[in-house]
Amino acid sequence: MIFATDAAYADNRDRKSSEGYIMKMFGGVVDWKATKQKTVTTSTTEAELLSLSNGARETYWWTRLFKEIRLDPEQDFEIWCDNSQTVGLLTKIDPELKTRLRHVDIHHHWLRQEVQEGKIRITWKSTSEMPADGMTKTLPPQKHQEFVRMLGLKDIRDMITAS
User: Fold this and answer.
1) Longest dimension (CA), the chain
2) Of 15, 52, 129, 162, whose CA is between 20 and 30 Å from 80?
3) CATH number of 134's domain
4) Alpha helices (H) in 12-130, listed in sequence order
5) What is the block-wise mean pLDDT of the chain (163 residues), using blocks of 10 residues?
6) From CA 63, how far away is CA 47, in angstroms rounded?
């Protein structure tokens, strides 16, 4: 299962960042969200960390649902992030996040704990491979086509016959 998160730093008038995620299972999108973060962050890394933390909490919700309905998807969640500094903060032995924003620090420590204990797996992906990129910004036509391809969507207009 793939869970891709992304953030667009301070892209709103009030300087709050946009964030989004896409969850894919067995090749198809089953969950997605695009929203504005509830708080202002002071860097791209902080915005990405907040997005990643929110995404990780969603994976826990899905895990509980699967357990409740006795569904074994036979694969673990992998969370993708296209910000290498954010991934490093969560996976390196001695990370260095210096922030005065208490809520960001709390998200960092919780998520780092979950990653270090092996409960969550974070993987860096380049922006060109990031399906959640289309949830946080307007894409030019060529990138939009790639976004649609990454989602696994197909144009079936030619398969539909007029009644």
Assistant:
1) 64
2) 15
3) 3.30.420.10
4) 44-68, 84-91, 102-116
5) 95 96 92 95 91 94 94 89 90 66 63 88 94 93 93 87 64
6) 25
